[in-house]
């Protein structure tokens, strides 16, 4: 099988026309089990987004679009479906972008399911373009550090940061990947490592507090991450820990890139307008149901942080690589 075709087998989002059903890979079960989560109503989709059955900004947006379609197909209150889905998670802008597209389609008497399918297909092509454009920054022999999961499981296919890595690999570049575990939900260890290992791309996992030491030893050539929202001044909101990595990369003169579609850009809001999601403290206090901290201890569990543009080398989009700062 051609290497570019392998990734097409990872389908995190499937629309079943025969049964008017959205089927999602249940990412809570990975990497131990490949399970699917069927959504028959917009409430099912809202639960899947809130509980991180599906996660990653583009994937959340696509799923929400299908949620709107389910509401229309079942003759339910579209405004209520819109508001329910909008309130599932506050930080990733793709959610609001796709919901607004679906509402505009509805208001113009166009079937929402057609708009949802269009958003889905567009994302596949966008991810491929990000990979093909972005792989030019990767040199043969590079070791790339990535954070959280910005792969096929976070989008519709290929991914954003992982699409860049994939296409470098498809083009025969000898590369290695370091995936930090990304506490507290371990998306790097559970999801990124799963995807890369599935395709035979060399990957090693590190604990989140190991990155600086590896950079000091000269074992990291580039850092590439995804994004959940990018402001007009190029401030990047991404999984908590991204800001720390950017500081470490700057100190060690390592290029720090962000890969994201143009739909992730927010040209209306400023830094103080963005709500940073805080999630349940149990995500930190428990691992697989076992308590790892004393009872009565409090938790800061921010899901995202913001990275200022002075720490970013460039942003890889489906149109171009936007250079923000010259490479170290």
UniProtKB/TrEMBL annotation:
Q: Which GO terms describe its biological process?
A: L-methionine salvage from methylthioadenosine
For this UniProt entry, the molecular function terms from Gene Ontology, in alphabetical order, are: S-methyl-5-thioribose-1-phosphate isomerase activity
Q: Which Gene3D superfamilies match?
A: translation initiation factor eif-2b, domain 1, Translation initiation factor eif-2b, domain 2
Which sites bind substrate? Answer: 55-57, 89, 187, 238-239
Cite the SUPFAM superfamilies for this sequence.
NagB/RpiA/CoA transferase-like
InterPro entries the record matches: IF-2B-related, IF-M1Pi, IF_2B-like_C, Initiation_fac_2B_a/b/d, M1Pi_N, NagB/RpiA_transferase-like
Q: What is its EC number?
A: 5.3.1.23
Q: Where is the active site?
A: 228 (proton donor)
Q: What does this protein do?
A: Catalyzes the interconversion of methylthioribose-1-phosphate (MTR-1-P) into methylthioribulose-1-phosphate (MTRu-1-P).
Name the chain's protein: Putative methylthioribose-1-phosphate isomerase
